[in-house]
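Tutorial sheet, problem 5. The two components below are modelled jointly, 856 residues in total.
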Amino acid sequence: MQTVIWKQLNSEQQLQVLSRPAVNSSTDIAGIVADVVSQVREQGDKALIDLAAKFDNTELSAVRISQQEIEAAEQGLSEEFKQAVAQAKANIEVFHQAQKPQPISLETQPGVRCEMHYAAIGNVGLYVPGGTAPLPSTVLMLAIPARIAGCKKVVLSSPPPIAPEILYTANLCGVDEVYAAGGAQAIAAMAYGTESVSKADKIFGPGNAFVTQAKQQVSGDHAGAAIDMPAGPSEVLVIADDKANPAFVAADLLSQAEHGPDSQVILVTTSEQQAEAVNQELARQLALLSRNNIADQALSHSTAIVVNDLAQAVQVSNLYGPEHLIVQTEQARDLLPEIENAGSVFLGEWTPESVGDYASGTNHTLPTYGYTRTYSSLGTLDFMKRFTVQELSQQGLKDLSRAVVPIANAEGLDAHRRAVTLRLGEEQ
Amino acid sequence: MQTVIWKQLNSEQQLQVLSRPAVNSSTDIAGIVADVVSQVREQGDKALIDLAAKFDNTELSAVRISQQEIEAAEQGLSEEFKQAVAQAKANIEVFHQAQKPQPISLETQPGVRCEMHYAAIGNVGLYVPGGTAPLPSTVLMLAIPARIAGCKKVVLSSPPPIAPEILYTANLCGVDEVYAAGGAQAIAAMAYGTESVSKADKIFGPGNAFVTQAKQQVSGDHAGAAIDMPAGPSEVLVIADDKANPAFVAADLLSQAEHGPDSQVILVTTSEQQAEAVNQELARQLALLSRNNIADQALSHSTAIVVNDLAQAVQVSNLYGPEHLIVQTEQARDLLPEIENAGSVFLGEWTPESVGDYASGTNHTLPTYGYTRTYSSLGTLDFMKRFTVQELSQQGLKDLSRAVVPIANAEGLDAHRRAVTLRLGEEQ
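Model answer (C-alpha cells):
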C-alpha cells in the first residue's frame, strides 16, 4: 500500500486519498434488474424456477425448502461448528436483547400525556448471499434481532443450492420459511410475494450489485418493501500509534482486504516507521492467504496515511467515516468521545474486526461507503417502528387550546382550530 | 362520505375501500426535477436566484436571510402567537428530550465488552413549505429535535418571501442559517451546497410532488443527502363507538380533510347510526369552513366503514395503517395493545388531531401512505445515528476464538481467522 504524509497534502489531495472507488451502478444493471423484477411479479414461482435454472444452474423442484430438508442439514456439520454458532448466537442475543427499547410515557403539561410506543415490523425478509463460501454469520446477524424484536414472520432467501451451514443456522435462529432464490429475483419475490414466497414488509441483508439494485427498486415502490440501508463495498480504517504491533495491524488490514477486490483498507498512523513495518508484515502475511489474489487487488488501491498526532488521526477517520474502525493505540478508549462517523469500533490490540464479524455480540451489518454520517449499525430497532400516543383530559385540552388556537389561526386552518373549540363549547 | 358494511364486502372489495389515491409521480416531474437539481449543482446561488424569479416571482438580493432580517420578524407578531409558540415549544422539548437515547455497555461473555453509542448527525437541512399560509409548526417539529440531538449545524430553507412567523420560530428554535429557496431547488441546494447554502448530511421536511421527487433523487446519490422518510398525502382514521359525540368525530375528519383535496379520511364505527350522525355533522360543519371547497373534495373519496365490534375496527385500522389514528370510544386505551400500524394515536374524546399537529409535544412528521408498517414517527433518534463498540481482553479473545475460528473456516476466510490466531500466537 502507498504511504502519504497528511500534512504535505492540500485539502483537495486529502479528499482524493479518502475517496472511495466508484461503484458500478450502470443503467445495464438497472435494466436487467427491472426485467427480473417484472418477471417475478408476473410469473411468481415459475419465474424463480426459470431464473434458478438460468443463473444458478439449478433445477428446483420447489422454491420453498421443506422442513425435513432443513432439519437434515445438521447431520453433516461438525460439533465444533455447531458449538461455535451456539456461542456466537448467545452473545448476539445478549447484545440485541439489551437494545429492546423502553416505551416513554410522561405529561408534557398537566392533563397532556404523550407516549412513545414500539411495535415489531410484521413480516421481514432476510437475504443471505451465496457464492464461494456459505455465510452462516449473516443468518445470525439478521435472524436474531428479527426474533428479539418480535416480528411475526421471518423468512430467508438464498441462492440454490443452499449450504447446510445456512439451513442449520436459519433453523436454530427460528426462521419460519427458507426459499431457494438468489439475486434480484429473491429480492423481488420477498418484496411482492409469490405462490410460495411470503411477502415481506422490509428486506434485510447484503448482496452483489444486482441485489443492491433490486433493493433500491423495490424500496422506491410503495407496493414493494422497505430495506435496511444502502450498500457499498466493505472497508476498514485502522488507527495505530508507534506502540502498535505491526503484525496485528497487518492482519486486520488483510482480514478486510480478503473480502473482495473492491474492499478498501486505510491505515492512519502517527509513525512513518509503523507504516513501513506494517507494509513489510502485509507482504509476509499475504503470501499465507488462500485468497491472496483478492487481498492483493484490494491493497493495490489502499493507503497508509501518516498524521501528526492521534487527534488528527480521529479527524481523518471522521472525514472518511469508515464502516469498521480499529483503534490500536496505548489508550484506545480515550479516542472514543471524539469519534463521530463509524459503523463499528474495535478498541485495543485484542479486538480484531473478525470478532465483530462473527461472535462478540455486535451486528456486522453496518453502513459503509460514507453512509456512517447518517445511517446506523443494524440493530433490534431496525426490526421495529416507533409511534406516538397522546391522551388529554378535558382540562388538559382547555389549557393546551391557548397554544393550538393561535397557531391554527396563523396557519389559516379553521377546522384544526374548530376540532378544539367545538369540544370546549367555544364554537358550534 | 359513502358508508359501507365491512362484513358485506369480499376481501378484494375490503382492500379497495382502504386503497389510497394514486400519487402523481409522472416522469415529467422526475425530468423537471432532475434538470433543476443539475442547474443548482452547476450554477449554485445563481440558479437559486434565477429559479426564485421564475417560480416564486421574487427578486432575491441574497439567498441567505440576514440575522437582522430574522430578528426584525418578531415585530409584527402578536403576543398571543408568540406565547402559543412558546408553549408548544416547551411541550415538544419535554417529549423530545425524553427520547434522547442511553448508551448500552455490557459484557456478552467475560472479557468481551460490547457497547452501543449514539452521535448526532453533523449537518441537517430542514425544509418548510410555503404556499397559502405559513407553517411555523413545521419549524418547531424539525428544529427542536435537531437541537436536542446535538446536530452541529441546523439550516432551514423555505420559498420566498418567507413569512415572519417562520423566521421568528426558526430563530427561537436556534436554527443557524435560513435560506430563501423553495421547491426542488431548495432540496438540491441543501443536498450539495452552494456558495451561500451549507451542505446538509440529511434533509427533513414535507413538500409538494417536486420536493418529494427531489428528496428521492438526492437520497439515491451517495454524494447527495439522506432524507427523513417517504412522503404521501395526509390521512386520518377515526375509530368511534356508538357513544362517541358525532360532532367531535366530524370535526376531526374535517381537520384532516381541509389539508388538501388528496387528503384521505376514514371513519370506522361499530354503529351504523353513528355513521349517519357523523355524515349529518359533516354537512353542517363543512359550511362553516373557509377551506370548505378543499375539504369537500377530500370527503368525496372518503368512506365510513361499519364493523361488527371494536376488535374488527382495530383490524381494519392495522390493515390501513393510518398516519393519524383517533380513537373515540368509551375505553380508548384498551385498544392500544392491539394497534400495530399507525403514525400517531389520539386517545379519547378530548384528544383531537390538532393537538398533536401543534402543541401536545409529539411530532407531527409521520409516516403516511401505508409506510406506518415499517417507518417511525419522526423523533430525536432520526437526528442521530448508532454505532457499536467492542473491546476485548486477551483472555476474552482467547475464549471467543472458539466461536470465531470455526465460523471463519466455514466461510473460507483465512485472514479473518488469522487476525485472531496470530494475536494468540497460534499462527504466525
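Marking note: The mean pLDDT of chain B is 96. Full credit if you identified this.
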